[in-house]
Amino acid sequence: MLQINFDPFPELSSTRLLLRRLTKADTQGLFTLRSDERVMQFIGREPAKTLDEIEKLIEQFNEGIDKNEAILWGIALKEDPQQIIGTICLWNMQPHNYRTEIGYILRPDHWGKGIMKEAIRLTVEYGFASLGLHSIEARTEAGNKASSALLENTGFVKEGYLKENNYFKGKFTDTIIYSRFQ
Question: To pair with 25 at 20 to 30 A between CA atoms, which of 14, 51, 54, 56?
Answer without folding.
Answer: 14
